[in-house]
Amino acid sequence: MTGQLIGAIDQGTTSSRFIVFDRSGKIVSLAQKEHEQIYPRPGWVEHDPMQIWANTQGVIAEALSRVHLKPADLSAVGITNQRETTVVWDRATGRPVHNALVWQDTRVDQMARAYAADGGADRFRDKTGLPLASYFSGLKLKWILDNVEGLRERAARGEIAFGTIDSWLLWKLTGGRVHVTDVTNASRTQLMDLQTLDWDDGMLAAFDIPRSVLPRIASSSEVYAEADGVLPGVKLAGILGDQQAALVGQACFEPGAVKNTYGTGCFMLMHTGSEIFHSKAGLITTVAYRFGDAEPCYALEGSIAIAGALIQWLRDNLNLIKTAPEVETLARTVEDNGDVYIVPAFSGLYAPYWRDDARGIVAGLTRYARAGHFARAALEAVAYQTCDVAHAMEADSGIRLSELKADGGMVANDLLMQFQADMLEAPVVRPEVAETTALGAAYAAGLAVGAWSGTEELKANWAAHRRWTPSMAVDRREALYKSWKKAVGRSFEWAV
After folding, report:
1. Is the model more confident about 416 or about 432?
2. 379 and 328 in contact (C-beta within 8 Å)?
3. What are the residues facing 407 on neighbouring strands?
4. Average pLDDT, the chain
5. In sequence order, what are the residues at sequence separation of 6 or more whose Cβ sits closer than 8 angstroms to the Cβ of residue 348?
6. Helix, strand or coil for residue 272?
7. Which of 116, 192, 217, 268 has the most CB atoms in a 10 Å sphere around its CB?
8. Would you call 447 helix, strand, or coil by DSSP?
9. pLDDT for the residue 2
10. Phi/psi class of residue 277: alpha, beta or left (left: φ > 0; alpha: ψ in -120 to 50)?
11. 49-66 vs 165-173: helix axis angle to the nearest 10?
């Protein structure tokens, strides 16, 4: 089995990638292509599912051709995806009936508040692990069914299918033969019971969702089908939501292990074992993974909506930088943040606050402030938000964070990683293979076809690339964080 290669489709918020890995977890080939971000109104965020599908096919072909591989050279392919993003399509034509509603989209804010008015924001938390918020897929699906003319009638006739991006890609890769999602993505819809791992009739009734539109819920690691088209005959054998995929890619298989992914958003997960652990500190409970017929494993998660997206905002909206990596160079032109704080509540604030009435603010401005302070404040905002989640996680679990495994595009930013270690007062570790999200999907697929014997072999693949240790004085750390919390409070009750 030493020559086995596993592919991973990594369909993210801003781009689609295909990565080929060998059995040691090393990258053999990679291709990537961005897709359009569509903003019909303030707070609304959409993607074109057909563009995502076209880009996915393109990056698969490109990654294989770069190293002269054929689809038959792959033992299996896994899928990892931006979670909660909602696609609804026509079963006969395979075409979407509406643009995808992205996880960041806030158009169902009022709907979430209306449900919360009867029983509170946590009325469904015991069953689903999730608070009522615009973040999750169920209310987005309800909005599409309610707002596309004639769609409910078509759904009742069995003509319509819903899925998160994993289901959409699996459907397209199999020519419409397979309508499946995995437990990790299903757990983000607010329609699945965490204990039964099946769609819950009570939730479907509450949100007025017909069961006929829903995919079958499968495990995260099994052979779902053989692909057609761009991957003819290749086994599609793993599905994980992107943050659960990163948990697997970081080999966090023991209770208490923690990883944080620094991408468009920021997502910290703590493996909590086979027991469902309900948060009392503003986190959510989610399925971490389920391999084959084994018992599922669960996780506590803190979700941050805006992390790398804030750097994109500096680039695209303010034109302070031309490329995202330039933000570190710009931030290093100043010694500190100049007392400038950016709270990037562009879509409200997620964990641990869950304030959909919050909006982004810049606080502490004086005539002294310049571009470098904005750049530094943006990077620091990512670290402060991570601290908010880490403190909630420690309060819930009773476990002091001993180190943080970090992955995602922003881990290349040394200034951010050092500041994060300083603010957490704990080491931050970057793995040898930074593409942990795609690697996790590859691991899930490979386990299903015997490319790896089990999680012990996957843990042996993991290695640290760099470690940052805290060096900031305690009084400085406390002063910075106190000012951050003050700025966060200023962002509340802006959108009411």
Report:
1. 416
2. yes
3. 261
4. 94
5. 106, 109, 134, 305, 355, 356, 357, 358, 359, 495
6. strand
7. 268
8. helix
9. 41
10. beta
11. 60
